[in-house]
Amino acid sequence: MNFSYFATTQRGIEAIAAQELERLGVKEVRPDFTGVHFIGDRTTLYRVNLWARTIFKVLVPIQEFYCPNSDILYQEVQKITWDEYLKPNNTLAVHCTGGNQKLNHTHFTALQVKNAIVDQQREKSGQRSSVDLQNPDLTINVHIHQDRCTLSLDSSGTSLHRRGYRQAMGTAPLKETLAAALLDIAEWDTNLPFLDPFCGSGTLPIEAALKALNIAPGLFRQKFGFQNFPDFDPQLWQQLLAEAQNSRLSKLPTLIWGSDRDPNVLAQARSNAQRCGIEHQIKLAQTELSQLEAPADCGVIVCNPPYGERIGETKELGILYKMLGDVFKQRFKGWTAFVLTGNKELAKKVGLKAARRIPVYNGALACTLLKYELY
């Protein structure tokens, strides 16, 4: 039996996420603002949670209704038979996005939905679910858009960007989902050498290695939200986990490097790589940018140098960006480089003509991914 699902994404990478879902064999994929609609059965739901690299969550819509104000919201939520999804001994959390003129405070909207659910439970059984914001048995997503409300069950639990391998983080880490999306935007062929000269705690080289070794990112997670659904099929889930384990490659088809000047963040990168079991597959080295040399005749660079939002001063970073352009030009002939930056003035300091300028959001920050073809 097929159902409608909605995969949430970082703004701006909806088309990339849609392409990824299509590669996973998903049908009727339709990108929307900050997400992708798709159709599938229970196997599809489990597989997307296990394998998708670029999405945050998979929501399972259960009801959509006219919702101009809080009273109607409460009434409509009460019409749903909640014991199909939630027992009084289960914990719950309600998260809200969007709003309209009368429902313009997400916390209040979430509270109204929670009240409608637990009031129904009390009326039926005299007992009610308690709220657990950290580790609930069931997370309900409420989305208000104009005068419509969509209620969904969260099949993922914690955001899928939290792979489970990254215990250690640098000062301004990329989310794993965005790192994976950048690799797709760069159209990186996993047979080509890969380098990140500002690797920090290792997110880009690790995500590149997981992709090249065909390792499902969900294998590092302890739990998914759908495992608490009443219709959870443990046998099917074990089968999909076994398939994912068996499809891992034992050796990278090419070399993947990460370097950084800071030995402390490199120690974090090594620790994160170790948790993935790939510490002997990728090369992580402490290297000053001025000392950086091309490790192969050709390859792809994807990097996220600091851009003055949270680290360092713009003036000092201007020198860094100029050096980056010089190093690319002098030592990386035959390579293609992609530089993510949120600072247009710094981007000019690279001093190279960009072949493409791709708009990308890093969280709420509007950035540009600059492509340089190095001849």
Automatic annotation (TrEMBL):
Pfam families: RlmL_1st, THUMP, UPF0020. SMART domains: THUMP. InterPro entries: DNA_methylase_N6_adenine_CS (IPR002052), RlmKL-like_Mtase (IPR000241), RlmKL-like_Mtase_CS (IPR053943), RlmL_1st (IPR054170), SAM-dependent_MTases_sf (IPR029063), THUMP_dom (IPR004114). It comes from the Bacteria. Coiled coil: none annotated. One of its GO terms (molecular function) is rRNA (guanine-N2-)-methyltransferase activity. Keywords: Methyltransferase, RNA-binding, Transferase. Residues 44-155 form the THUMP domain. This is RNA methyltransferase. It comes from Gloeocapsopsis dulcis AAB1 = 1H9.
